Amino acid sequence: MGRWTDVGPGEAPPDDLYALVEVAQGSRLKHEADLAAGVLRLSRVLPLGLAYPVSYGCLPAIPGKDGDPLDVLVLASAPLLPGTLVRVRPVGELRLRDEGEDDAKLLGACLGDPLTKSWRRLGDVDGRLLEGVADFFRVYKRAEGEQDEVRVLGWRDEDAARSRVVEALAAPL
């Protein structure tokens, strides 16, 4: 594996982005990318009965406000293997407060999946799936025995997600 950041932000930012999958949908294994080394490291194993509702990863060439790459929840009809680079279209954003800090997870529709490639708006995503994703983030740290509570502040639409990407791309490194 090479340096994932060398691939650039995507085919046509902010509408067509490269996402690096760190965790497969349905997995209890929380991997985190070591972008410089080009490897995935196991961070932890989630408790029994708790699994990621969608594939999870990052936009390796797009830094967030904390300096880490923006987080992304990848919508696809099947689990995506960790280490896979996929093209996504931002369709929304989940706003959270974690350890007293604002946090956001971009929601991206996988462009390589016939089911999700036509999704352009948050309204294209089934509301039950959105609620399940929000519920996961409400409980996952508590289920691991951490005292910090993650507060779900709500979903924002595709315009907000695209704006976050544009802002991140314009920020000095």
Instruction: Summarize the helix and strand pattern as letters.
Output: EEEEEEEHEH
- Total domains, how many? 1
What does the overall shape look like? Answer: globular
How many β-strand runs? 8
Q: Quick one: CATH class?
A: Alpha Beta
Radius of gyration: 15 Å
User: What's the main sheet like?
Assistant: 5 strands, mixed, barrel
Unreliable segments of 5+ consecutive residues: none
> Percentage of helical residues?
10-25%
Strand order, sheet with most strands: 1-4-5-7-6
C-alpha end-to-end distance:
24 Å
- The fold-level CATH name is Inorganic Pyrophosphatase
Derived from helix and strand composition plus strand pairing, the structural class reads alpha+beta
Question: Topology, pairings included?
Answer:
Blueprint lengths: L16 E7 L5 E6 L4 E7 L9 E9 L5 E7 L9 E14 L2 E10 L16 H17 L6 E7 L1 H13 L3
Parallel strand pairs: 5-7
Antiparallel strand pairs: 1-4, 1-6, 2-3, 4-5, 6-7, 6-8
